[in-house]
Design goal:
Helices cover about 45% and strands about 10% of the residues. The chain has about 350 residues and is α/β, with parallel strands linked by helices. Helix 9 runs parallel beside helix 10.
Length: about 350
């Protein structure tokens, strides 16, 4: 019997694209088919590697898997980044991972930059590999990884920043998952170090000039007004770098700087691509009367604008929204009357 013909290489990506994305076992088995299949599967598996650990029921297995992912990413750090970590932290495993050679540049495949998910994985890695290091070391490693992803990834689509991990302390031996509230460590950095780390993480992303389709930002309630404004400046810089690429933006717990963030969204090329806005726990009292009219006009160009547990609304703001948009209780916010706009008139 003649062997079956090989599939043309150019149709393999279409086949792989229809595989169940959440079926890690199927994807891993495809790695063993051939080198070509391996080269096609690796970018899929490493597009969102922490996602596959969510389906592991055994906690110890999940922790070990996440630790291995962080091992791989640490080995991919540049020589300069590893040197900085050696100089500033007590992470000993760097010595053994520094010489590791990888067949793929795994950081370039990641599509979602979520500091909460990354910190969860780093925390699991700490418990498994370096239980003696303190919170300051963990934050330096977190920053090194975020900076690497921002600079090297060729697939970034989504950005999620959670400044609130500077807010609270927690037991150093406590375990947590991505579903928990964002933690800090009991040995957290000092106020000045915290401010520097916050600026470094945001500025690394801002300076990378990366473009994202969706951005979610959770501001830190415990920051001082000065720190909050520094944070706002970095967020504004990130927004302005998006051009016509950004389509969805979510901001949470914004006590200071909401007016500047809205102005950054409504001016420039970003305003032409943006379709959805979500505000969670934001203070709208920051908007002055002159800003209300221009803000509502900007909101009316969105497909939907959602408000969850926000406060500080002025009567004129709500009145203007109701005139420009339609309140849709099913989505919990205002939507534009898209159907009416697209439906041709009878006269036409």
């Amino acid at each position: 019997m003649r062997p079956p013909p090989e599939l043309p290489i150019d149709i393999l990506p279409n086949i792989i694209a229809h595989l169940v994305k959440d079926d890690a076992n199927t994807l891993f088995s495809c790695l063993l088919v051939s080198r070509i299949w391996c080269r096609l599967i690796i970018p899929i598996l490493w597009r969102n590697p922490f996602h596959y650990t969510d389906y592991l029921k055994k906690e110890s297995t999940r922790e070990e898997k996440q630790s291995k992912i962080i091992d791989v990413y640490i080995s991919c750090l540049s020589a300069d980044a590893k040197k900085r970590l050696k100089d500033r932290t007590d992470i000993k495993i760097l010595l053994s991972l520094s010489s590791s050679k990888r067949l793929f540049n795994y950081p370039k495949y990641i599509s979602s930059l979520d500091d909460k998910r990354i910190l969860c994985a780093v925390w699991d890695w700490k418990l498994k590999r370096e239980p003696s290091i303190d919170g300051h070391d963990v934050y330096h490693l977190l920053f090194a990884l975020i900076r690497m992803f921002a600079e090297e990834s060729q697939s970034l689509q989504h950005l999620s920043l959670n400044s609130c991990f500077y807010d609270k302390s927690m037991d150093r031996k406590k375990k947590f998952s991505p579903k928990d509230s964002f933690p800090s460590l009991s040995s957290s950095p000092s106020e000045s170090s915290r401010k520097i780390l916050l600026v470094d993480i945001y500025s690394a992303i801002a300076s990378s000039q990366r473009k994202f389709k969706t951005i979610c930002v959770s501001k830190a309630n415990a920051l001082s007004p000065e720190e909050a404004m520094i944070e706002t400046t970095q967020i504004v810089t990130i927004i302005k770098a998006q051009g016509k690429y950004l389509t969805e933006f979510t901001i949470s717990s914004c006590k200071y700087g909401l007016d500047e963030i809205i102005d950054a969204l409504r001016f420039g090329a970003t305003a032409k691509s943006l379709r959805s806005l979500t505000f969670n726990g934001c203070d709208f009292a920051q908007l002055s009367s002159p800003q209300i009219a221009t803000t509502v006009e900007f909101f009316s160009r969105m497909e939907n604008v959602l408000f969850r547990m926000c406060h500080g609304y002025k009567g004129e703001f709500l009145d203007a929204l109701e005139k420009k948009m339609v309140l849709d209780h099913s989505v919990g916010g205002f939507v534009t009357n898209i159907e009416a706009r697209e439906k041709p008139s009878k006269e036409a």
